[in-house]
Design brief:
The complex is a heterodimer of chains A (244) and B (101).
Chain A lengths: L7 E5 L3 H11 L4 E2 L3 E2 L4 H4 L3 E5 L15 E6 L5 H11 L4 E6 H6 L2 H12 L4 H23 L10 H15 L2 H4 L2 E7 L4 E7 L19 H8 L2 E5 L4 E7 L1
Parallel strand pairs in A: 1-4, 4-5, 5-6
Antiparallel strand pairs in A: 2-3, 6-7, 7-8, 8-10, 9-10
Helix pairs in contact in A: 5-6, 6-9
Chain B lengths: L1 E7 L2 E10 L4 H13 L4 E12 L1 H16 L3 E5 L3 H9 L7 E3 L1
Helix pairs in contact in B: 1-2
Classes of the chains: A alpha/beta (244), B alpha/beta (101).
Chain lengths: 244, 101
């Protein structure tokens, strides 16, 4: 069963005029907390509200990881046509997050999404631990090796760790890398929980690493935590399935 | 992640709390340097109150083991529970370093 489409828009730190224009083009009403929508469709909107995150939103967002919010799009440098495309994508799934790389690297996305899933599905402790670990590993991979295109840490030394840290600092301060998108797409409508993590890097081929050193265990942990996973789109999309 | 070190003779007990992920790389480097510099031959990492570790955290623990081994110091993980114990098991860390209950 397909999820109900996104029913309304809301925003944090986003210009009112631009929000109104996007609402008009997308055909979606604006969500007013406590008052429903601008077209009076309170019940419908209560199920699925998309929030656009503009400026200075990070300190306020904690109260938005809850129903009726179901999609969170960090606007950053996105043009209106790109925002409209992401709104369309959000309509196709239960929960949708689209952040820049620098934000995904800074926040605990796995913990935040897990909290939202837990409001909609009853999860056992094992299920929670498995989803959190696999999602955390998937987002880390998408950030570090996907969008930031960092090579795996080589060598078992503090110096190697410091070099990797310096490379990370260098890349994450380069807007060409930092503004790449990380999308997390979660479907709760079948007999399982499926979560896809999508990056905009060069892709990735999963290779067997018989003797991993300081890195190379992420996919082992993902494989042990989910029912199954697939790498799609040349490795830019990791799709994971968990028992409900 | 936070830690506290208690040194008694030839044994250093490091109590680690919170979550150990790649974002802790600066603190982990500082911890490794402290363990390298103190005089204890046995460096015990008490994981009782560590709530979460990821693959990068495992990698950093292996770096600590390697650096300490280069100075003939023994690095021991102790009292992992819950998610941390499960990750250590899946990563087969017991084949690479000493893990105590």
């Amino acid at each position: 069963m397909a999820p109900p489409p996104v029913a309304a828009l809301h925003s944090l730190g986003f210009p009112a005029k631009r929000l109104a224009d996007l609402a008009a083009v997308s055909g979606l009403p604006l969500w007013q907390p406590g008052a429903g929508t601008t077209n009076g469709c309170a019940m419908l909107a209560a199920s699925r509200v998309l929030v656009l995150l503009g400026h200075a939103w990070e300190d306020q967002v904690s109260s938005y990881w809850t129903q009726p919010y179901a999609a969170w799009i960090e606007v950053a440098a996105l043009a209106d046509h790109s925002i409209l495309e992401l709104i369309r994508r959000a309509s196709d799934t239960s929960l949708y997050i689209s952040f820049t790389t620098i934000t995904a690297n800074r926040r605990d996305l796995a913990g935040e999404l897990l909290g939202v899933i837990g409001q909609r599905r009853r999860l056992t402790r094992d299920n929670r631990d498995n989803i959190e670990l696999a999602l955390h590993e998937a987002v880390s991979n998408a950030v570090l090796h996907g969008n930031l295109q960092l090579e795996s840490l080589s060598g078992l030394s503090v110096d190697a760790l410091e070099r990797f840290s310096n490379d990370l600092t260098h890349r994450i301060t380069d807007p060409d890398f930092a503004n790449r998108r990380i999308d997390v797409i979660c479907d709760l409508n079948g007999d399982a929980v499926t979560i896809d993590v999508v990056d905009q890097g060069n892709g990735f081929l999963l290779k067997s690493r018989p003797n991993p050193q300081a890195s190379g265990r992420g996919f082992d942990l993902i494989g042990a935590s989910c029912q199954s996973f697939r790498l799609l789109d040349g490795g830019r999309r990791l799709s994971m399935r968990f028992p409900a | 992640m936070d830690y506290a070190i208690d040194i008694k003779g030839q044994e250093a007990l490091v109590r680690m709390t919170g979550r150990l992920t790649f974002n802790d790389h600066v603190k982990l480097r500082a911890l490794i340097r402290e363990m390298l510099q103190n005089t204890a031959k046995r460096q015990i990492l008490d994981l009782t109150n560590l709530e979460f570790v990821d693959s990068a955290g495992i990698g950093m623990l292996l770096i600590a083991r390697e650096e300490l081994s280069n100075l003939d110091k023994h690095f021991i993980l102790r009292k992992a529970g819950g998610q941390v114990k499960r990750v250590l098991t899946v990563a087969q860390l017991g084949k690479l370093m000493t893990i105590e209950e």
